[in-house]
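Reply to dn_fold:

You asked what the input looked like. This is it:
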Amino acid sequence: MQGRILVVAPSWVGDAILSEPLIAQLRPPQGGPNVDVLAPAWCAPLYARMRGVGQVFDSAIGHGRVDRRPGD
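and this is what came back:
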């Protein structure tokens, strides 16, 4: 069984587009997609269409710091 990689996607669409070369470097040259992506809902369709991406998981984390809960 081949290992899988999870990429935690940036929150901005432009940065998501710029991450495509990273996805290309991470996927194997011969074989199925082994790169999964955790992405915000507005970036998920972009990753779903990238070659080499297996599954796209919805991230509930929006813009801002991830070390604080909403309302803190």
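Strands lie at 5-8, 35-39, 53-58.
Hope that clears it up.
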